[in-house]
Amino acid sequence: MSLNYLSSSLPFLLLITTVLHLHFTAALPLSTNSRWIVNSGGDGERVKLSCVNWVSHLDAVIAEGLSKQPVDVISKKIVDMGFNCVRLTYPLFLFTNDSVASVTVRQSLNKLGLIESIAGFQANNPAIIDLPVINAFQEVVASLDRNNVMMILDNQISKPGWCCSDFDGNGFFGDRYFDPEVWLKGLTKVATMFNNTANVVGMSLRNELRGPKQNVTIWYRYMQKGAEAVHAANPNVLVIFSGLSYDKDLSFIQTQPVSLTFSNKLVFEAHWYGFSNSEDWETGNANEVCGRVVDNIMSKSGFLLDKGYPLFISEWGVDQRGTNENDNRYLNCFTAWAADHDLDWALWTLAGSYYYRQGVVGMEEFYGVLNWDWCEPRNSSFLDKISPIQSPFQGPGLSNTRPHKIIFHPATGLCVQRQSFFQPLTLGPCTEAEGWNYTPQKILTIKGTYYCLQADGVGKKAKLGLICTDNSSKWEAISASKLHLSSKTNNGTVVCLDIDSENNIVTNSCRCLSNDNMCDPASQWFKIINSTMGVGTHQSYSRVDAILQSLEASLLG
Ligand SMILES: *[C@@H]1O[C@H](CO)[C@@H](O)[C@H](O)[C@H]1NC(C)=O
Ligand SMILES: *[C@@H]1O[C@H](CO)[C@@H](O)[C@H](O)[C@H]1NC(C)=O
Ligand SMILES: *[C@@H]1O[C@H](CO)[C@@H](O)[C@H](O)[C@H]1NC(C)=O
Ligand SMILES: *[C@@H]1O[C@H](CO)[C@@H](O)[C@H](O)[C@H]1NC(C)=O
Ligand SMILES: *[C@@H]1O[C@H](CO)[C@@H](O)[C@H](O)[C@H]1NC(C)=O
Ligand SMILES: *[C@@H]1O[C@H](CO)[C@@H](O)[C@H](O)[C@H]1NC(C)=O
Ligand SMILES: *[C@@H]1O[C@H](CO)[C@@H](O)[C@H](O)[C@H]1NC(C)=O
Q1: Are residues 342 and 471 in the same domain?
Q2: CA 286 / ligand 5 centre spacing (Å)
Q3: Are residues 368 and 504 in the same domain?
Q4: Sorted alphabetically, which SUPFAM superfamilies does this protein's record hold (predicted)?
Q5: CA 380–ligand 4 middle distance (angstroms)
């Protein structure tokens, strides 16, 4: 690119970016419309929070990774990986204790003996290293804001350090480091400081309430006060409430609603990891564990969707090396559930490594989407797998087509599609998924046609047929997980939808439905999901396909 070109096009480029920026920010702040989070454009279009947690609450009290990469490079990587939002964690004392806030980055790293981090920080973020840590936090927020990344500011803990345990003094109101009055002051300070930062769209009031002091009465008293304090200082942000027992229990909302002076800003958050159920995934039958755990989470927090509140799954994640069988099985169940309910969420975590965690210098984080040096995604196949849940399937203002179903395959992160009538059904990107109708008679027909999905026999490709009245055209979600789609071939053999080695859709004997703990049913897990999002390329069928469709229409009247 010549200098000449640059100088003549620069004003134009600037104009474009300004317009785009304005267009985006003009749609903020966010609010809630029943279970959906919506923007302030038009009638309020749904905004799906697809966040990643960025840790800034550990001993150093500095956002992790700044010794590895410049802050703007990290912000851009977040966007490149498909996230539109960060849940940025902080320790309360950063905002309530001057002797914590005023230490410079260099001093803070030095105090922990992190000589290598200082050198890396100096090289990557020279403009930040001599700022007090409170200003370093503001620089990170400013960078995310510049890059149009929305932020949820999360009060992870009071005293800087790794979170959480029952007896760390940070668990519940009245614990050693958790004075409710100090907390309220801190929340006000945070809300005020970022009142004019448009991309700070929400505040998680307190992470994972827990421990021997936890108490529902006291929960209502202080959470409501916290929400009012935040709202008074910054009426723009969503206020996000964590439940009890490490954010796994909001069941008490069933019987007693939260009472606030303002409306359309309240969101609930919940956490769900593989290890939330210890080793159950690995030692049990995956269908039975998935069914049981989903039922449990629906009764503890999922019910809030039906009560008309957004539910933000603000922590979930897996060991991305793919070597933890417990996590692998959980992940397929999780993404099926998250896609089904089209949830808002924040992945744990961004960090490929920490400056200093739990006494370990430079600790690697295998749950991190970035690798140890924060250069590359740790595992691009993990990102591929979660990409379908990074985009919304439905919600106010988003529909560009009539409601239909898509068939999601969590193990691959792909959806059932067809290239044309003559080609077998295969898996492809969910953005190009085939649209289906699922009738009360359990028949799956391709939207706008008479073609229905049929089982042809064990080990055979699933086919599309026009006579849809026999048993081979009925598809039922079976097993405890309801994630197997089962039919009967014409001689009465029960089969389940599956994939072959080329990702073609086939039918096989149903596997691992119950009891068996060793086998993994994931290749047979499919979820029929509601969508109102228009589909792309698959709608441009081949000419032959179009002729067949009109023939079929005249045949069937
Ligand atoms: C403030 O932080 C300093 C340094 O960590 C600590 O010694 C002091 O006890 C804290 N003060 C309060 C009131 O928490
Ligand atoms: C919860 O706190 C309230 C108010 O202080 C108290 O009356 C109640 O006994 C506590 N409940 C439990 C189970 O400790
Ligand atoms: C926060 O900003 C809003 C406008 O965006 C303003 O109405 C409000 O007074 C501000 N609050 C404080 C505490 O500055
Ligand atoms: C990425 O994850 C998959 C399983 O999901 C695993 O098979 C693969 O080895 C992982 N790759 C790396 C580089 O960790
Ligand atoms: C999907 O849509 C159907 C029909 O509108 C509805 O009954 C069902 O509850 C929806 N499923 C979910 C998970 O929202
Ligand atoms: C379909 O299956 C049912 C039992 O599930 C059976 O009674 C019926 O005969 C079958 N119909 C045909 C046409 O095979
Ligand atoms: C149905 O046909 C398959 C071959 O497609 C055969 O293996 C199976 O034994 C048959 N089942 C019955 C009940 O006849």
Answers
A1: no
A2: 24
A3: no
A4: (Trans)glycosidases, Ricin B-like lectins
A5: 8
Q: Is the residue at 473 inside a domain?
A: yes
Nearest bound ligand to the CA of residue 491: 7
Tokens of 18: 């300004």
Give one DSSP letter per residue of 369-413, joined into a string.
SB-TTSSSBS-HHHHHHHHHHHS-S--TTT-SS--EEEEEETTTT
Domain count, the chain: 2
Task: Compute mean pLDDT per 10 residues along the chain, 557 residues long, and list them.
Answer: 37 40 64 98 94 98 98 98 98 98 98 98 98 98 98 98 96 98 98 98 98 98 98 98 98 98 98 96 98 98 98 98 98 98 98 98 98 98 98 91 96 93 92 96 95 97 95 98 97 96 98 95 98 63 51 55
Total residues belonging to the chain: 557
CATH code assigned at 289: 3.20.20.80
Amino acid letter, residue 359: G
Q: What angle do CA 75, 81, 87 make, to 5 degrees?
A: 55
Find all residues with CB under 8 Å of 551, minimum gap 6, and list them: none
| Predicted TM-score of the model (pTM) | 0.92
Residue 178 to residues 83, 170, 260, Cα–Cα distance (Å): 32, 5, 23
CB of 99 shorter than 6 A to ligand 1: yes
Distance from the CA of 93 to the center of ligand 1, in angstroms?
Answer: 8
pLDDT reported for residue 534: 74
Residue 522 lies in a domain: yes
Which pLDDT belongs to residue 19? 38
CB atoms within 10 A of CB 479: 23
Q: Nearest C-alpha to atom 10 of ligand 4 is from which residue?
A: 321
| Residue 321 lies in domain | 58-390
Residue 237 pLDDT:
98
Residues with CB under 6 Å of ligand 3 are: 192, 195, 233-234, 236
Q: Are 508 and 501 in contact (CB under 8 A)?
A: no
Mark which of 366, 390, 414 sits at the end of a domain: 390
pLDDT at 547: 55
The ligand with the least distance to the CA atom of 36 is 5
Helix%, strand%, coil% for the chain, nearest 5: 35, 20, 45
Distance of CA 195 from the midpoint of ligand 3 (Å):
6
